[in-house]
Amino acid sequence: MRIVDLRSDTVTKPSPEMWEALKSMDNNKLGDDVEHEDPTVNKLEEKAARLMGMPAALFVTSGTQGNLISILSQTRPGEEILLEEHSHVVKWEVGGVARIGGLMVNTFPSVKGTFNPSTLSWLVRDSSDIHQPVTSMIALENTHNYHGGIALKTELFSKTRDVADEFSLKVHLDGARIFNACVALKVPITEYTRHVHSIQFCLSKGLSCPIGSIIAGSEDFIEHARKIRKLIGGGFRQGGIIAVMGLIALEPKWIQRLEEDHAIAKLLAKSISEIEAEKPVHVPTPDTNIVMVEFKQNIPMETIYKVVNELHKQGVLCFDMGPRIRLVTHYGITKEDIDYCIPIIQNTLCNLL
Q: How much is the CA Rg of the chain, to the nearest whole Å?
């Protein structure tokens, strides 16, 4: 049976160019990265820092680890950070900022990831009040996973930074899929990074590396982050073995390749939406590579589970995400794959709803 895996862009496999780069590795390109001696990791970090328009960068194992290190490096236990209520840090990072960082989390609502930054000022604690914790950070996410890969505009970041500066707060960007936003909106990544103190982005997901993320910021921040990485067990030794693929992933043509994922995601969404008039579903046009099948009526979760299970039986892998179904395009998924999936998805929705 043919399998088309649309669960997530975390299931991507390396490109032929990445495998060739790995095959060219030898011991001269490896060293102990805990001692900052792996030349390939150093090269990757330097390349990433230049691309971000920031002084320094650090290679970490995952986006979750990158967010945790970034937040812990710029806060103190007992402080409070502000996050959008459906952000990845809040919903899918196991409460690490609370358990490991000793931080309080205060959430704010948004409309598909967008909000009025001026309202954040009402959430900032009065630091002179001995009864209250100190608010020290605002963390944003772009693209926004829960809201369907929404690409947030640069103006939101500039206005958020204005609020942060007013109250001497740090701004961290969970940019796991930031290049998807840049490609979709046709803006350079520095239009985002110039408004934040730190950023995390994934080399895995759309950029197709098997492992790894990057965090970037000031030299002082990265120096501290390197120690926090070691603290939580994230120190690489001969990390060049995987960093070499990251060097390929950061090439302009590989980043621009994300347009292909966006195009077939739009095709998939448009095709599923053709049954909207007959069935209680709504499929928003995606900004990037995440397609959300929403349900107009109060469909029981049991029914949604049945839809997902039936699709899995027919070789179309996807995730349920609350009262929705998520399908994600990525490297390795072709237009032919999408053409194959469309009638299966349409028929399954029509038969089970």
A: 21
Residues 6+ apart with CB under 8 A from 102: 77, 78
Q: Torsion angle of alpha carbons 251, 257, 261, 267, nearest 10°?
A: 160
First-to-last CA distance in the chain?
A: 25
Question: In the chain, what percentage of residues exceed pLDDT 90?
Answer: 93
Please report, as a single letter, which amino acid is at residue 35. Answer: E
Residues 251, 256, 262: CA angle, nearest 5 degrees: 145
In the numeric block, the tokens 């999408």 are attached to 338
Closest residue by Cα to residue 74 from 161, 168, 189, 186:
168
- DSSP-assigned states of every residue in 105-117: EEEE--BTTB--G
Q: Do the Cβ atoms of 184 and 149 come closer than 8 Å?
A: no
pLDDT on residue 165 = 98
Strand 324-328 vs strand 316-317: parallel, antiparallel, or unpaired?
unpaired
Mean of pLDDT values over 246-259: 97
Q: How far apart are the C-alpha atoms of 143 and 182, rounded to whole Å? A: 9
Residue among 209, 173, 284 at smallest CA distance from 14: 209
Q: Which two tokens stand for residue 218?
A: 């000031």
Any idea what DSSP says for residue 24?
Answer: T
- CA 134/CA 331 separation, integer angstroms: 43
Domains of the chain: 16-254 (3.40.640.10), 258-352 (3.90.1150.10)
- pLDDT, tens digit (0-9, with 9 covering 90-100), for 21-45: 999 999 999 999 999 999 999 999 9
Contact assessment for residue 248 and residue 111, using Cβ atoms and an 8 Å cutoff? no
Are 154 and 187 a contacting pair, CB within 8 Å?
A: yes
Q: Return d(Cα 157, Cα 194) in angstroms, integer.
A: 9
pLDDT tens-digit map of 197-251: 999 999 999 999 999 999 999 999 999 999 999 999 999 999 999 999 999 999 9
Which residue(s) pair with 135 in the sheet?
80
